[in-house]
Amino acid sequence: MPARNADHAENTHLVLIPSYNTGEKLFETVADARSHWLPVWVVIDGSTDGTGEALAALSANQRGVRVIRRSRNGGKGAAVLDGIRAAATAGFTHVLVMDADGQHPASMIPAFMQLSQRNPQAMILGTPVFDHNAPRIRVIGRRVSNALARLETLSGIGDVLFGFRVYPLAALRTIMESSRWMRRFDFDTEAVVRLSWRGVPAINQPVPVRYFRAADGGVSHFRYVRDNIALAAMHLRLIGGFLPRLPWLVARLLNRSSSKSFHH
Predict the structure, then answer these.
(1) What pLDDT score was predicted for residue 222?
(2) Rounded to whole angstroms, how far apart are CA atoms 30 and 42?
(3) What CATH number corresponds to the domain at position 215?
(4) Which of 79, 111, 197, 211 could join 133 in a cystine, given CB atoms 3.0 to 4.6 angstroms apart?
């Protein structure tokens, strides 16, 4: 049986899983998430592997599971946007977004949801704790992207690429609908930077991450050349947005520093 959500959070917080051709890992991920939290919504982003049809059939007999199907693949951000629009219509205030490929531990869902309930204005960001299977080139690239994001926000954001996180729904929807970006692989990073610019605080929480080999059913749509070029272009765009905000960001940083000094 699925775990019982604390303090009626099932009325405000849901798990949202975007998926594109994830294969059997999707069903494992949904079952694992459902064992820790309800409701669980899945956005099938134009998948052609039959998982959308199969999951829709399975979910007909599973309480708290909803499948939203997109006719065409639009990217992770586009799938998340469809999901949060539907969630807002249903009255939810927060979404925990997690990947469909089994890398994110569903056992962490309750802790993240509870932290979000105590800090409803904040985004709860997973900070990955890698095992020995993590590709070294991905780890190095992540450090570069994180350093750039900390510069662009002048904040202590832990990680901008790890997709296990809770968002305040209204703030996320506002920044996404006001921009034509954040629809594909750029979603995770740009969403955090722009939310930080809007004053949404970040709470960083360590999360163990698992990398699966293809032989173990692992699925990755990351393409090193294509997606690193896209990330570089995104950071150039964000630097352009950072510069006019610099005086305000510096003032915010100084204010935080003075507040900490006062309390100590």
Answers:
(1) 59
(2) 8
(3) 3.90.550.10
(4) 211
Q: Is the peptide bond before 105 cis (omega within 30 degrees of 0)?
A: no
Of the chain, the percentage scoring pLDDT greater than 90 comes to 68
C-alpha to C-alpha distance for 30 and 102, rounded to whole angstroms = 9
Structure tokens at 57: 């059939």
Higher pLDDT, 7 or 39: 39
Number of alpha carbons in the 13 Å side-chain half-sphere of residue 222 = 14
**Residue 99 falls inside a structural domain:** yes
Mean pLDDT of 62-91: 95
d(CA 191, CA 165): 11
Domain assignment present for 2: no
- What's the structural domain count of the chain? 1
Residue 98 forms part of a structural domain: yes
According to DSSP, the residues that pair with 166 across neighbouring strands are 96, 124
> Which strands sit side by side in the sheet containing 202-209, from one edge to the other?
65-70, 40-45, 13-19, 94-97, 165-168, 123-130, 202-209
Give residues with Cβ within 8 angstroms of 100, minimum separation 6: 17, 18, 19, 20, 22, 25, 26, 29, 30, 42
Q: Which domain holds residue 237?
A: 11-263
Residue 202 lies in a domain: yes
How does residue 184 score in pLDDT terms, banded at 50, 70 and 90?
confident
Parallel, antiparallel, or unpaired: how do β-strands 40-45 and 13-19 relate? Answer: parallel
23 contacts 54 by C-beta, under 8 angstroms: no
